[in-house]
Amino acid sequence: MESIWSLTEKKVTKEKITYFPRAYYRVKKGYIVVRIALDMSRFQDRFLHLGEDLENGLYCNLIEREVEENFVKYTLLYDMQKSRIPIKQVTVEDGSMRLMDHVYWEFDKMPHMLIAGGTGGGKTYFILTMIEALLKSGADVRILDPKRADLADLETVMPEKTVLSKRNGIMMTLRKSVEEMLQRSEDMKQMPAYQTGSNYADVGLSPVFIVFDEFVAFMEMLDPKEKMQALEYMKQLVMLGRQMGYFLILAAQRPDAKYLADGIRDQFSFRVALGKMSESGYGMMFGDVDKTFSYKRIKGRGYADTGTSVIIEFYTPFVPRGYDFLNKIGRASEEGSERRRRQSPTAV
Ligand SMILES: Nc1ncnc2c1ncn2[C@@H]1O[C@H](COP(=O)(O)OP(=O)(O)OP(=O)(O)O)[C@@H](O)[C@H]1O
């Protein structure tokens, strides 16, 4: 039998080490939302970094972490693959593109996308999917494919000078895009709907997307002077693009740190890594993060940071077998020009 002293001792010790944070959870439509109170205790810092523990413990995927007033909120999803959508459900509306059931690329708020993916990971299908949706919405899309891989074929169905694969043509498109963007910034100020801080959409202009595949391979083709010039154009586009409606979608098999230096990478708010990648590849895409990455043999599967700094498991929209991208993109391009003509008869 324990003496009264040891019992008391036990009690005291227990009181000392026991701490109950206020935590709430809610389960709804496949989501688990966990809220933990931030009460300034010495454990608070740990509660702010529970994402991976919750993912592993609940066998779910963290899709968002938000700090609210007095709480940190984790939103988890049971099965990310269930949120994959078919290509026909990809839509572009109000500055946002729907990519999964609950995942949007809000390009107006989170401009520029960086995509990395090893061979066969689904990078090309993903880019083609976005091109089709963007064109359909009336966006102006310019495609740069320096390796003359799959995207160059689009020149047969797209307007002249919108698909480029030669070095001079690519450099010229980058230069022209920067010039147009700067001109747009001047023109916007003269528009009746313009107010300080207005963006391109507020004054009724269409967005412009520059889809640049294999940009690392392109950089490697250039001499040092041209390299600096190309980087300068890209820097200007990423810095000023959001307000003027110029967005870059940059893709490479492996993002090379030297072409994403000087804070350029951080300007790409939406980052996607598809297929098999090395630890250093993930590091280059997402920075130094607390996340265990794994590989599954599913085409179009990978990870994404949608602009919230939470890395989610990501599935590109599903493309059915035999889907005729060339034909669909040709039709989307015509539909988009028609839409632009209707919205602004002088703009096309
Ligand atoms: N979203 C998807 N839905 C259905 N199948 C897909 C999807 N993405 C990729 N695939 C399948 O995987 C194959 C390879 O995809 P894709 O050509 O996009 O890869 P990639 O990463 O661009 O590779 P590479 O660099 O070698 O061209 C496709 O031919 C297709 O069969």
From TrEMBL:
<feature type="domain" description="FtsK">
    <location>
        <begin position="100"/>
        <end position="283"/>
    </location>
</feature>
<dbReference type="InterPro" id="IPR050206">
    <property type="entry name" value="FtsK/SpoIIIE/SftA"/>
</dbReference>
<feature type="binding site">
    <location>
        <begin position="117"/>
        <end position="124"/>
    </location>
    <ligand>
        <name>ATP</name>
    </ligand>
</feature>
<keyword id="KW-0547">Nucleotide-binding</keyword>
<protein>
    <recommendedName>
        <fullName>FtsK domain-containing protein</fullName>
    </recommendedName>
</protein>
<dbReference type="InterPro" id="IPR002543">
    <property type="entry name" value="FtsK_dom"/>
</dbReference>
<dbReference type="InterPro" id="IPR027417">
    <property type="entry name" value="P-loop_NTPase"/>
</dbReference>
<keyword id="KW-0067">ATP-binding</keyword>
<dbReference type="Pfam" id="PF01580">
    <property type="entry name" value="FtsK_SpoIIIE"/>
</dbReference>
